[in-house]
Amino acid sequence: MNQLLNNIRIVLVGTLYSGNVGSVCRAMANMGISDLVLAAPRICDNWEEAARLAVHADAILANHRRVDTLAEAIADCSWAVGTTARGGLYRQHVKTPREVAPELLKLAAQGRVALVFGREDKGLTNEEIGICTHLIRIPVHPDYASLNLSQAVLLCCYELYSALGTYEPPVEKSSPATAAQKGKLLEKWREMLLTIGFMKEDKSDHMMQGVQRIFSRGTFSEDDVAIMMGVARQADWASKHGNEER
Amino acid sequence: MNQLLNNIRIVLVGTLYSGNVGSVCRAMANMGISDLVLAAPRICDNWEEAARLAVHADAILANHRRVDTLAEAIADCSWAVGTTARGGLYRQHVKTPREVAPELLKLAAQGRVALVFGREDKGLTNEEIGICTHLIRIPVHPDYASLNLSQAVLLCCYELYSALGTYEPPVEKSSPATAAQKGKLLEKWREMLLTIGFMKEDKSDHMMQGVQRIFSRGTFSEDDVAIMMGVARQADWASKHGNEER
Fold first, then answer.
1. Mean pLDDT of chain A
2. Structural domain containing residue A230
3. Which of A105, A187, A197, B116 has a CA-to-CA distance to B246 between 20 and 30 Å?
């Protein structure tokens, strides 16, 4: 049980208030989760607030890591679960934490899962959402849909902790692909799609979000990455050399 | 729906920190609950912290009432649900918030229900527990079982709000692809992968199983099919005509 929770990482992107970091630590400890990474924090107040609100979760606070980007924060994770309060394009396949919690525990048996929380003032960017494999929205009352950051973290961790009770271990032969492996795949696909003339440079960001979404649905194994990488290389090659010449 | 939530009252007993009161207001607003009563508050800090943390839930903060005892706070309620982090005598009939939420909503259709939260430092007394009709304990990790007050309120309100069942998850605009659409997509991909020389005819069944598996993970929408169909057509075309000529 703890082994699964050990494979859950909380990533806070661009956090402004140290008090929220402290409260997040406490909420994590309450639910048995301890791996905290801050991506490009923008802490604008007195850091001491963090320790005051972490209370007995001071070990989590002391052991947190800082990196410059979300991509770095999730590089060794096979899944990244973005949280959003908004709908809109590319945010339509959202689920509730309760719906995905059992699946996330199964995934955590195979690799690391990051839960990603955006800025207090403006959440996650579309680009950041794009590199997430799952997207969740916490059910809240429409009159006031903005949760405090640590409250959002608590609810997600609570759903994971609660779902442990129903957990059944899964099996898949090929390891799940990591974010870094999928990042390389997407780079190669962008190059190929430009080469074969499937898209123009100026529309490519938009189109790649669609492709990224496709590759993020469900589990994507290392074998899957190898296949799709091969497809891209070959299409690239064939469009340059013609398919007869080989 | 709001009618039920209007019959839910949050009662904080002997609260010490005004920031917790503010955070409680915000959490209540997030879950559509607005009736707050402080019983014998012991606020020991600067009250301004409450407004800062309530953010847009300032109306709840402004409208809260204060009374001298828990008995007064729940006088007009038909049910009072005490919260406890401890077990022990008189605390053995505890349930989880998730277990009792549907029942509490049914009760709220008939009368007022109070959720009662104790002091930050020592919870509710046995006497206070005694006048509650229900008792709940939030599932937390045994290593750190003490939740922040506003986090505890949030989880209970969240379970009530979730139990309403009226929350409808957003729908994806593009319909899920049918088996027939995915079948056509796979045919086109087979053709393309042969054309670009990614696979030989005699290995193609095996390889197509891998591709099929990728396209079968999670929901695959009609838009997704359109994108992947376009990719295959274009790779096909480019490998026959070269990518420069278009």
1. 90
2. 179-241
3. A187
Which residue does chain A place closest to B155, by CA atoms?
A155
Summarised one tens digit per residue, pLDDT across range B215-229 is 876 667 888 888 999
B70 belongs to a structural domain:
yes
What residues in A contact B234, CB-CB < 8 Å? Answer: 193, 196-198
The side-by-side arrangement of strands in the sheet containing A35-39 is A65-67, A35-39, A8-13, A113-117, A79-83, A134-136
Overall pTM > 0.80: no
Average pLDDT value for chain B: 88
Do B62 and B92 reside in the same domain of the chain? yes
The nearest CA of chain B is from the CA of A148 a distance in Å of: 8
- Residues A112, A202 share a domain: no
**How far, rounded to the nearest angstrom, does the alpha carbon of residue B115 sit from its chain's CA centroid?**
18
Whether residue A134 lies inside any domain: the answer is: yes
- Decide which of A166, A198, A220 is a domain's last residue: A166
Please answer yes or no on whether B27 and A57 come within 8 Å at the CB atom.
no
- Would the CB atoms of B146 and A56 count as touching at under 8 Å? yes
Contact A44, A50 (CB under 8 A): no
Within-domain flag for A171: no
- pLDDT, average across residues A81-88: 81
The average pLDDT across B111-127 equals 93
In this complex, the residue of B169, B220, B223 whose CB is nearest that of residue A217 is B220
Q: What is the DSSP string of B122-191?
A: TB--HHHHHT-SEEE-----GGG----HHHHHHHHHHHHHHHT----PPPPSSPBPPHHHHHHHHHHHHH
Residues in chain B within 8 Å Cβ distance of A213? 224
